[in-house]
């Protein structure tokens, strides 16, 4: 297992010389806001400004001041309820979306300086690849398995002819996809085979970092196990790092070195996955662990907690996002947003973390 690296260590790489042991991925103060639909648009904003009216428009703060690092060879889990911002975060990291602020640095290169549209054709595009939840939906239905795997090799590596075929076949072999299936379309493949195509397509261009957005959620439990084993083998054989997004805390505890717990756009706790789940320090992580389906109920659905989350639209910067749902909440939580603080190899954003750690 890779040694843990705390969330705030990124600071050393933002200001001053990069350390010798530079993280593979360095995310600093990342923000992504979406305008609330039905708002007035750029022209309306201009009109309001000319009339001297308010120009601020409401925004969903989907990712709010998020910082973390991933080291070479590490598997980092990302967990949190639906709507906490996991998909938005990974879409910004993989440069499918532009951030509203902050830095994404991969192997020292600041990816966030390149607009998403331009990055799609960038030679470094292949260094960070994504595997989506449902390969059946993310693969073009008119592409055979061969064409799906060949597509990024053509676009990003400029391969064609025999060299292209050799790379596609190699990726299929690595992912346990029989070559005879390469001529089939997605609807002619089983869920597990489609998942293998999605993974082969991502690893064919030899990325440094694979971002897996619930890669097994659409699969039967028995197939999930086989795909997780495949991912484990590939990681060792190809020397990749993983960011693994999942609702399944059992799987995250099993395969991840570290975990990031996200709530309403913010990281509220991070640390070694086993320790975080065995002894959660943030009341939200505790609630998540308590609400997680047992082994018998695996696949029973997403975790749902009691109570309504606060609104993600222009949240009050002085109020803890978990206030209102938190059993520990007091007036203090409504006047000062708790910052992430370090406790050994853990980081926790709660005013009462000392109380919890000293139990
Ligand atoms: N294009 C968009 N426009 C406006 N709001 C958006 C957009 N995409 C996401 N959001 C909002 O951003 C917040 C985070 O959504 P996101 O899909 O990232 O959460 P999630 O944790 O990935 O959820 P799930 O696990 O259900 O996929 C939500 O409040 C969502 O409604």
TrEMBL record:
Classification via InterPro entries: AAA+_ATPase, ABC_transp_ATP-bind, ABC_transporter-like_ATP-bd, ABC_transporter-like_CS, Oligopep_ABC_C, P-loop_NTPase
GO MF: ATP binding; ATP hydrolysis activity
Biological process (GO), any one: peptide transport
Membrane topology: Peripheral membrane protein
Any single Pfam family the record assigns to this protein: ABC_tran
Domain ABC transporter: 44-289
Places the protein is found: Cell inner membrane
Keywords for this protein: ATP-binding, Nucleotide-binding, Transport
Coiled coil: none
Family of the protein in this entry: Belongs to the ABC transporter superfamily.
Protein name as catalogued: Peptide ABC transporter ATP-binding protein
């Amino acid at each position: 297992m890779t040694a843990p690296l705390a969330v705030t260590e990124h600071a050393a790489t933002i200001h001053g010389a990069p350390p010798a042991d530079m993280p593979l991925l360095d995310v600093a103060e990342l923000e992504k806001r979406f305008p609330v639909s039905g708002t007035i648009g750029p022209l309306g904003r201009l009109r309001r400004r000319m009339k001297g009216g308010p120009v601020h428009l409401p925004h969903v703060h989907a990712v709010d001041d998020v910082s973390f690092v991933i080291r070479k060879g590490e598997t980092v889990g990302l967990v949190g309820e639906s709507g906490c911002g996991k998909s938005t975060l990974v879409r910004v990291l993989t440069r499918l979306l532009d951030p509203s602020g902050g830095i994404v640095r991969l192997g020292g290169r600041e990816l966030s300086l390149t607009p998403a549209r331009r990055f799609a054709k960038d030679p470094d595009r292949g260094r960070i690849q994504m595997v989506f939840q449902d390969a059946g939906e993310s693969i073009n239905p008119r592409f055979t398995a061969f064409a799906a795997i060949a597509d990024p090799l053509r676009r990003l590596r400029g391969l064609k002819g025999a060299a292209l075929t050799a790379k596609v076949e190699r990726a299929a072999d690595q992912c346990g996809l029989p070559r005879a299936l390469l001529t089939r379309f997605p609807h002619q493949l089983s869920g597990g085979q489609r998942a293998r195509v999605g993974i082969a397509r991502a690893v064919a261009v030899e990325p440094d970092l694979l971002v897996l957005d619930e890669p097994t959620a659409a699969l039967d439990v028995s197939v999930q196990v086989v795909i997780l084993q495949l991912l484990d083998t590939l990681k060792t054989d190809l020397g990749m790092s993983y960011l693994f997004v999942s609702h399944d805390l059992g799987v995250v505890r099993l395969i991840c070195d570290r975990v990031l717990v996200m709530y309403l756009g913010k990281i509220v706790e991070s640390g070694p996955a086993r320790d975080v789940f065995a002894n959660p320090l943030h009341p939200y992580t505790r609630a998540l662990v308590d609400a997680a389906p047992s082994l018998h109920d695996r696949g029973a659905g997403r975790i749902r907690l009691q109570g309504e989350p606060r609104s993600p639209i222009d949240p009050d910067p002085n109020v803890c996002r978990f206030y209102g749902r938190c059993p520990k909440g007091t007036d203090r939580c409504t006047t000062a947003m708790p910052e992430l603080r370090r406790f050994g190899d853990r980081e926790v954003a709660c005013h009462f973390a000392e109380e919890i750690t000293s139990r």
